[in-house]
Write the structure tokens for this entry.
Amino acid sequence: MRTHSLPASLAACGGALALAASLTACAAADPNAKEITVYSADGLRGEKGDGFYDTVFKGFEKETGIKVNYVESGSGAAVQRLARERSHTQADVLVTLPPFIQQADGKGLLDTYRPRGSDHVAAHDKDPGGRWTSVVNNYFCFIYNKKELKRPPESWQDLLDAKYRGKIQYSTPGVAGDGTAVVVKAMHDLGGQAPAMAYFKKLQANNVGPSSSTGQLAPKTDKGELLVANGDVQMNYANMPAMPHQGIFFPAAKPGGKPATFALPYAAGLVKNAPHTAQAKKFLDYLLSEPVQRQVSAAGGGFAARQDIEAKDARATELAALMKGVEIFEPDWKDIDKNLDSYVGAWRTATGG
């Protein structure tokens, strides 16, 4: 898993990270501090310091003088950490994937704030109550090692082939956003919870085992340790220059069917009782500003969240070609948020996870 240690500035009061009360006291004592802390799902920071976040953090600090302290984890893990710290909030901004952004809202962890530019974001990509909005659009996908496989698997059925034994891995549902997306797509494609769980039980013969973060699967797939893994278009497309042997594909519901996927955007929200609310609002405004949104494809390999932005760079053209012919369905995120524990529990029962 790609992990990043907390910057020294986050512990500027002189205590370790574990001394949460000291951190909170430090933030309260300096309301004009030139820093914010962002808890985020992985995928937007480049392996070589050349990703979307790398560009955005530098630009934001140059424009405002505010430094971004970045804490990366799996999508669900970020929300769990935020919930644990409710009485001594350390994060200012949360960026995570659905259904975990809805989960954070349901737990009362987000405050209301509509960033400038959010009026250009589609209604289904933001909370009607103003507690979160998508900042980078994205789509769920699978990846395969195109050096070892001449063509990607066509459907879910193909993944049950014995040649994939010990060569498939997907991140853990309920912990990783992309891992949860595996369950969402299987339930949609295979006809509901029962057939999807029956499928996952069969797939266990080929599955390596749990992975708390999707980001660690791409290097394994590129090296050939895995032949197939789950991912998302933005993250996997962005790291292709460093991992040229991975290819992106979208399994069809059944052999001969059309490839299909669904939107899995990075959504951002202001953390309730954030130590640096004013600075966090500036950051959210910056993320949705027109210049930054125009960089989403070129710097991050993703899709602009604002509908009024039409990227024309080379990466945007390649991304459009990648998505051509792929059917896009819209999950019922309210149902998934409401029943997530039940779906994850069923998955655990089916897989022995």
